[in-house]
Structures are given as C-alpha cells and as structure tokens.
Amino acid sequence: MPALTKVRAFVAMPLPEASLRIIGKLQQELAKDLPGVRWVKPETIHLTLAFLGDIAEDSLERLGSSMLSIGDLQPPVTATFSGVGAFPSRSRPRVVWLGIDGGRTLTQIHEALATELRTLQLPVDDRPFVPHLTLGRSRKSHPGAGRILESFSDRDCGSAQLDQLVLYESRLGPRGALHLPRHRVSLTGVQP
Q1: Active-site residue flag, 132
Q2: For all residues of the chain together, what is the average pLDDT?
C-alpha cells in the first residue's frame, strides 16, 4: 500500500499590496533597533487563521472544497493594523507581531473555519484566537527590547478590506518557507 502524500498547510487571509508596503516600512524601522531579528519578507505577510501542519493531500482537497461555504456565508473583513507586540512578551521577543482588529466578522470567520476543520477531522488549535501579523522571529534575547517595542505599541499601519481565504501549501527551504496557494475563496457574504 503506497504511503499517503503529506502536505504542510495553513489557511490565511492575504493582505493588499498597499498594506504590505506600509508594514514593510515599519519592519525597516524596527530592524534598526532590533538587528538580531529575522524579519519576514513583507510580500509573504498574511493573517493566519489555522495552521494545519502536515496533512494528507486528500484532506487538503476536502478542506479546499468546504471553504467555499465559508466564502458564500461570510462577508469581507475591514481590518485595522496597529500596535506592535511580541510573544511571549515585549521584553523577551521570540515573535514580533503587528496587531489586527477585524471585529466580530473576523471572529466569525475563524469560528466557521474551526467548525469545518472539526467536521473534516483536521487539527484545530484550541488556544484563544489572537489575530496578528508575524513581522519577525528571534532566538536570542535583545537588551532593551521591551523599551524599543513599547515605543511602537500604538503604531497605526492603517486599515484594509480582507476579502479572501487562501489554503496555502508551505514548502520549507534554505531561504525560508515558500507559500503556494492551493485553494482561494472570495468572501462574498452580506454584512449583517
């Protein structure tokens, strides 16, 4: 019996180019004070809704099909990008992020996706959903990081309409991850 083909995958909402340019400028500012952080390429920044890890190819296809119902029922999200933070904390940044406020609509889309994942018996992260854009990652400590990141805590990077769900395949390579869209669904539902 042949082994099942596994694919590293996640579901995300892509950002418009204008927003990515603004966020890229923010990263350049941060990089001056935090040189040891590996910054994400601006063109690959996205809002992750579900990281699936390695899943079977046929599960990827089934999820892509089930995402159509989410797109038909859920409206686009008007998202505001503001406030730089870090996980686990600003003073010990392992992940530097930009916050997102997408209101109740974003929460509903996340919940609808989690329901589809459970129905398909795919992994669901049970931690609370904290919408954010990963700007960079670090493995070492940065003296003064808390003070530096605090000075960006109220940075406003504008807003944009997010109107697509994309199921990405993620291929890891020596130059970082390559994100290949496998299924793309437009959000066409009506605002309540």
Answers
A1: yes
A2: 92
Contact 22, 42 (CB under 8 A): no
- Other Cβ atoms closer than 10 A to 90: 18
pLDDT tens string 81-132: 999 999 999 999 999 999 999 999 999 999 999 999 999 999 898 889 999 9
Which sequence spans correspond to the domains of the chain? 6-186
Catalytic residue among 46, 142, 179, 183: 46
Q: What is the DSSP letter of 125?
A: -
183 catalytic per annotation: no
Nearest Cα to 87, choosing from 23, 38, 136, 154? 136
Burial class (CB in 10 A: 0-12, 13-18, 19+), 7: buried
| Model-wide pTM > 0.85 | yes
Q: Give the active site residue among 110, 132, 142, 183.
A: 132
Tell me which amino acid residue 73 is. Answer: L
Would you say residue 3 has pLDDT above 70? no
CATH of 6-186, picked from 3.40.50.1370, 3.90.1140.10, 3.40.50.620, 1.10.3720.10, is 3.90.1140.10
